[in-house]
Amino acid sequence: MNKPVNQKIRVMFFKKSGKYYTVGNAIVNHFLWEDEFKHDLVNTQDSLKDGWQGEFQVLTEELDDDNETSNFATFLFDAESFVGIEREGKNE
């Protein structure tokens, strides 16, 4: 299995109550089960300003070239999964 390289994914954000909040995209270079996957999400998601970590549940889906979902395991991260992960370069 080849590691993802600049894989575009859809990220949907839900409040802790489960209510839909917003949707956007991110670029990942790691498998879903690797901790670096969450770092990729924090660093490249294009929907929310920094500081969302720990406040939103995140649903991920792979996108193909036509921005339609394809062969990727949809996964829901709970809000606590992102606590303590800061966006790289935010102080630059």
UniProtKB/TrEMBL annotation:
<protein>
    <submittedName>
        <fullName>Uncharacterized protein</fullName>
    </submittedName>
</protein>
